[in-house]
Amino acid sequence: MHDPDPTADVGDPSDEPVDATPVETADDTLEGVAGDESDDSAVRDSEPDRPIAWTRVDWWWCLGIVVLSLVLTGLHVRAYPTLSPVDELQHVDYMIRAGEFDIPRRNERVGAEAMAEAACRSVDAPLYVGPPCGLDEYDPENFQERGFNTSAGQFPPYYVVTGVVANALTTVGVVGSKVTAGRMLGALWAAGAWIVVWYVMSLFGIDRVRRAIVVGGLMATPFVIFHAGATINADVSLMATGSLALLATVQYDRDRLRWWWLPPIFVGAFFVEATNILAITVCVTYLAIRAVGDRSLDWPRRLAPLAAFPFLYLLRVEIGPWVQDTLFPPAAVTSATDLEVSAPMFEAHRTTGVSWSRVFEQLGATFSPLRGPYLSPPLRSDATVLGLQLSNWLMIALMFAAAFLVVRAASLTLWARVLMLALLAAGPFYTFYYAYFNNSDFSAPARFALPLVPLMAVVTASALRTRDAILAASGVFGFVALTTFVQLLAAQ
Asked: Do 95 and 162 form a contact (C-beta atoms < 8 A)?
């Protein structure tokens, strides 16, 4: 790693080439993609990755990403009016209140508008029986988690942005429900993330054929649709913030971003959603390994990035909770039953210590996240399960290939290896964290890996180096996309 060029900037996409000397332009055909048939075995390209020029063609591709995201999200929203069991009632309440700049605090119950939405939509949870639709008043005790807003401890940026826009859309009559508006806005969060991924792929010299296969395929997976777009949850922001952290790191590594931009970008991503600590740690680990191995730097500068790790620990364990408690202190209560921790989800998972066997059971929880999404009723079928298995194994194979076999450049090899380590470690880390710091026994859900999906897309696209690999990926993702569209269109 070298000192940043004082004349360089972030390098935002424009109609001009990303690099002063465009090396490749729109390579949108399969001609020359596969190379020699003799290259179908392990292929190692020792040449540095070279950016592909960003042209007007890419802006048309970006428009296509936005349209596809809106279509997929819209179809799912139409087919799935029920509230998600992943605490969507609580997130809906947060979003509605934040849209009016009223940030809920811990120990508070959900409001009347959110309860009315839940009563009329119901909640997609086994054995859940809610109150009837249309009552003048509702009792929070009759809803999930006894009506406690269990999402109140999260940071407000996602909820404020989504809530304000959803409030405006319902006020002018574009849509009739803030829940519907908020869910549809998830399509724009997801599209923004995929556009950044598209740009990062161009920086690594990945042509548009490979980009389209991976980006389009992942967009159509149930995991991405449900957790990163079509339901109201702060997790929707994770791919967008994770992709921006990745872009900033790549640009800094290429001397196109000054180092002092990284701390505010990383800290900002964390304060959008704390789960971004996973993506930030991956980026810092990558930079630390690069710095330690850079013999052009003296030892103090080579070891300097290592100082970021204790800061990340303090950010997650001390600074983040302190900021939340200072800005939005818990609401006062008069009895133990009025405490948020008395909600059923906390009571059922209470533990007194760390179970190491439980921790190590989570090694595969987020590796790869595509295999374990919650399937909404419109997408529950044998075909969906088959698509999940195929896409999961495809992603694992491509990540392994990018890390050890078919690589374009040393930087991508390192990215792939750090990514695989993070996906393996994330499950045990979160289960340990909740048990040790919160006295809660929680399995790590696959959606916690959402901040790493942008990097997964880049790494796997880089591994599509042969015609066979391209055809296999096209077949798997094509099957997933076809299954998804058919089931969503057929849903009543």
From this structure: yes
Contact present, 216 and 477 (Cβ < 8 Å)? yes
Residue-wise pLDDT for 230-250, tens only, equals 999 999 999 999 999 999 999
- What is the spatial distance between Cα 447 and Cα 228, in angstroms, rounded to a whole number? 9
Amino acid at 470: I
Q: What is the pLDDT of residues 301-358, one digit of tens each?
A: 888 889 999 999 999 999 999 999 999 999 988 888 888 888 888 888 888 888 898 8
Amino acid at 369: P
Cβ 430 vs Cβ 220: under 8 Å: no
- State the pTM of this model: 0.88
Separation CA 398–CA 394 (nearest Å): 6
Separation in Å, CA 426 to CA 20, 220, 312, 418, 430: 39, 24, 15, 12, 6
Q: Which residues contact 41 (CB under 8 A, 6 or more apart)?
A: none
CA-to-CA dists, residue 271 to 29, 92, 478, angstroms? 42, 19, 36
CA distance 397 to 220: 19
Distance, in Å, from the CA atom of 271 to the CA atom of 159, rounded to the nearest integer, reads: 12
CB 447 within 8 A of CB 430: no
Cβ atoms of 170 and 178 within 8 Å: the answer is yes
The answer to whether the peptide bond before residue 357 is cis (omega within 30 degrees of 0) is no
Model confidence band, residue 3 (pLDDT cutoffs 50, 70, 90) = very low
For residues 279 and 269, the answer to whether their CB atoms sit within 8 Å is yes
